[in-house]
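Course exercise 7: structure representation. Students receive a sequence record and must write out the corresponding structure in token form. The form below is the worked example handed out in class, using PAS domain-containing protein (237 residues). Read each field label carefully; the graders check that inputs and outputs are placed in the correct fields and that the protein name is recorded exactly as given.

STUDENT ID: A-19
EXERCISE PROTEIN: PAS domain-containing protein
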Amino acid sequence: MGSLNDPVSGSLTLHTLNHIPLIAIMEHASIPCGIKNKESKFVYLNKASLDFLNIPSGFDFEGRRDEESHCAWSELAPDFQTQDRAAEQSRTVADIVTTSYYGRHAVMEPYYCPKFFINNKHGEILGTAYYIQKFKLLSVSEFFDNIKPSVITLTPPDATFTESELDIIFYARQDLSKKEIAERLFLSSKAPETRLAGIYSKISVHSLSQLNEYCRATALKNYMPKKIFKEGVEFFW
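STUDENT ANSWER:
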């Protein structure tokens, strides 16, 4: 890594931070991280990411998309690229949890992967950067009809519902009573029923079963509020 010192003052300053190459930081990171362009083509992967993704030695990944890697996780390419677009379009962090065969020993485990948009000084989107973090979550399948999805989305899939409505939808889908939902979300006893009525009206459904059908047919099928992970996940490097 190059020197971090200000060539004038000899100390690290806010000004000199702008001149520290992002790659220089990623190159020495012990966690997997990488960069894609706005076409979801790989631009850079650090060594930790090459090992994590089990990229074959000598494989030229630059300029290739997820599905061209021919690794176990490449079947999740559509989900990864949806996440890329979400980060770029929202100009914020897009979070998902993926489960696949990762590492040189190809072990199936879940990982948390946030992606951040990258822009130039004119504000134009250039692509995305990501890092990957392992976590431990007990009984994740209980939140998804006893089927463990390969991708759990932590970023709201669209702007149809507010954050509070998404919370209601998530807990309602777990067959919690309105009283239990109110307790979980610290609401008045009547609030869940009122909010569910508003949710039904938004998407022209009339029952929880119809709401479940709507979720299964949309990106909401794998959505989980990020606060669930803050409460129930042990993160470690």
